[in-house]
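In response to the reviewer comment on reproducibility (Comment 2.3), we provide here a single inverse folding case reported in full, input and output, so that an independent group could reproduce the run without further information from us. The structure tokens appear first.
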């Protein structure tokens, strides 16, 4: 909980117009600069000696800048697990775990353990590390651990220091990344996905994307609608709020989650002894914050300030039982008693992603996160005083996390990405899955994506907790499986009730949270 570190088509329209329509059958008609990418033949090999033989990896090349395909090239690491039921094969299911900055190369192996057999009979599972991430020409800003610590509460006496930090991160990324980071955008990753589709010989791709992967999938449907087949978008990003608004929505969503938790806990006062009424429960927490501000609380080998408690508790309150147990333990620690956490959720160990002999910089996830978040959109304010005003306003509105979410970020000094953000507004069919109580992408965010994709259907898991649904034995799984295996969307939006224990199961999914953000997958 202590750590606060931390996802016009082209200038030359002739090339860009070709990319959506290209298949191996038509590649010979393509402009010669793109043929070298679209006619690649991946050299598949076993990913590593510890994994199943049918888990295969390869490397392909894509342009760093799609407006200059004859220019600098970067590598994309891709992986697959082919279906053994060739007679039932529908195509490929491309997978993305979220982020931005999440490695996806091991997704086929990880999801093979979670997806139903009927889906695995229909699809080759295909993963990839997005550009700049993991084994795909990884980027670095050369950041120290302290510089990567980006969850910063607003305080008048430290704001100038926060501004210097944000400027330093942006300058180091610009210096270390050369001209590469401005091309690490969601639009270019969507173009990379279409190169993968073409290289695999597929007319269309189906897709399962979590968290940031929902936005990536939505951008793909906007840019390449004719190549989008069956798209499942799980735990959704609102395209209208990328990216500052998607950080601020964490603060907005935390307040009703805190209220719900206090009501739930008060109803179980005999068990948790945090208060007999919601008001008393809330006071217990804020008293802990005030005490930690006076004297940090020793907890699990760390000295936690009140700001640490606020930052670390934001996501925690979305899972009521976990939060109650955690606050009980914090209260005991504050009283000088030895806390004994019970019910700590089990996180299924994941194998390390395969390495192609390339070392990944220690700040890769942070560097790629900021690259996408800052370069994707030109809507970040440039005036530091705007961040100051917003942080003051939002700390009053959203006491748990408002000042963290609206404080200065490196994007204020980043400069523009290679092109404007994508306006998502299409009728491509897609299935959106959304928990009611998701700490990273709250329900309002899922509804936002649903509005922009007018051809979509949405399954809302009533009282659902956790970030990530499909593959957790959720009540929404049946609908998602039916869609992936038949191609038929529900006739209307659906709501189902969360089964007991879903929040625990959600931690089995390989979904990264942004670097250093305490979320639903951080207690391994």
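Designed residues, in position order:
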């Amino acid at each position: 909980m202590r750590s606060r570190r931390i996802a016009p088509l082209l200038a030359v329209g002739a090339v860009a117009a070709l990319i959506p329509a290209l298949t191996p059958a038509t590649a010979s008609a393509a402009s010669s600069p793109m043929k070298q990418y679209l006619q690649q033949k991946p050299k598949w090999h076993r990913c590593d000696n510890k994994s199943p033989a049918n888990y295969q990896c390869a490397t392909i090349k894509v342009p760093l800048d799609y407006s200059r395909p004859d220019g600098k090239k970067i590598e994309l690491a891709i992986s697959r697990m082919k279906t053994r039921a060739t007679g039932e094969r529908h195509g490929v299911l491309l997978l993305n775990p979220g982020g931005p900055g999440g490695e996806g190369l091991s997704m086929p192996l990880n999801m093979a353990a979670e997806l139903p057999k009927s889906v695995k009979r229909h699809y080759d599972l295909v993963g990839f590390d997005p550009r700049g991430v993991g084994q795909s020409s990884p980027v670095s800003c050369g950041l120290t651990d302290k510089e990567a610590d980006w969850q910063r509460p607003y305080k008048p006496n430290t704001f100038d220091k926060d501004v210097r930090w944000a400027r330093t991160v942006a300058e180091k990324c610009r210096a270390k990344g050369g001209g590469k980071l401005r091309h690490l955008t969601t639009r270019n990753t969507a173009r990379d996905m279409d190169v993968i589709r073409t290289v695999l010989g597929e007319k269309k791709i189906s897709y399962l994307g979590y968290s940031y992967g929902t936005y990536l999938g939505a951008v793909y449907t906007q840019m390449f609608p004719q190549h989008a087949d069956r798209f499942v978008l799980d735990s959704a990003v609102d395209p209208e709020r990328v990216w500052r608004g998607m950080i601020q929505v964490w603060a907005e969503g935390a307040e009703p989650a805190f209220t719900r938790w206090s009501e739930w806990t008060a109803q179980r006062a005999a068990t948790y002894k945090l208060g007999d009424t919601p008001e008393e429960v809330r006071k217990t927490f804020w008293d802990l914050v005030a005490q930690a501000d006076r004297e940090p609380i020793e907890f699990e080998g760390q000295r936690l300030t009140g700001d640490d408690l606020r930052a670390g508790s934001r996501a925690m309150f979305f899972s009521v039982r976990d939060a109650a147990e955690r606050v009980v333990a914090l209260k005991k620690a504050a009283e000088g008693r030895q806390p004994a956490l019970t019910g700590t959720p089990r996180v299924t160990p994941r194998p390390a992603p395969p390495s192609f002999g390339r070392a990944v910089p220690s700040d890769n996830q942070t560097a790629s996160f900021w690259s996408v978040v800052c370069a994707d959109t030109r809507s970040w304010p440039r005036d530091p005083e705007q961040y100051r005003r917003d942080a003051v306003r939002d700390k009053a509105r959203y006491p748990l996390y408002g000042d963290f979410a609206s404080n200065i970020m490196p994007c204020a000094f980043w400069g523009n990405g290679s092109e404007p953000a994508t306006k998502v507004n299409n009728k491509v069919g897609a299935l959106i899955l959304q928990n009611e109580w998701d700490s990273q992408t709250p329900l309002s965010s899922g509804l936002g994506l649903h509005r922009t994709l007018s051809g979509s259907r949405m399954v809302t898991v009533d009282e659902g907790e956790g970030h990530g649904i499909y593959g957790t034995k959720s009540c929404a799984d049946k609908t998602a499986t039916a869609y992936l295996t038949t191609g038929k969307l529900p006739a209307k939006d659906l709501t189902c009730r969360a089964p007991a224990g879903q929040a625990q199961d959600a931690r089995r999914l390989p979904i990264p949270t942004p670097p250093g953000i305490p979320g639903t997958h951080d207690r391994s």
